[in-house]
Amino acid sequence: MSADAIKAAMSVAADLSTGSLTEADLGDLATAECRELFGTVVGPEDPLWPLHLDVARQVLARSGVPEGELTEWLAVARRARPDAETPGISDPMGHSGDTGGVRDADLPTT
Q: Is the pTM of this model over 0.70?
């Protein structure tokens, strides 16, 4: 660990101990940083795409998207397929690994 990293960690620890930085502040900062680094889904060409897919599947597994919204997304995905008879399945779970041609304008609002 570099001296700068140690100084930064000690500064955060000092700010936490004096109350000039709260745990909530630290959580807000971490959330903002994560959103900046991970919060925009570009598509398959993005190096974070596999991680985006993994997180999306975990959210779905935890029932994190309401049923009505899932229905909307299914309709968007079906409209984006060039051939409704051929789903383009590329893995056993049925994940195509691409955006299916979905444009931002086709996305349902949440």
A: no
62-92: string of b/e by CB count within 10 Å (b at 16+)? Answer: eeeeeeeeeebbeeebeeeeeeeeeeeeeee
pLDDT over 70, % of the chain: 75
Q: Give me the residue spans of the domains in the chain.
A: 1-39, 42-110
Question: Model confidence over 18-44: pLDDT tens digits?
Answer: 989 888 998 999 999 999 999 999 999
Q: Is 107 exposed, middle or buried (0-12, 13-18, 19+ CB in 10 A)?
A: exposed
Residue type, position 84, single letter: A
From the CA atom positions of the chain, what is the Rg in Å? 20
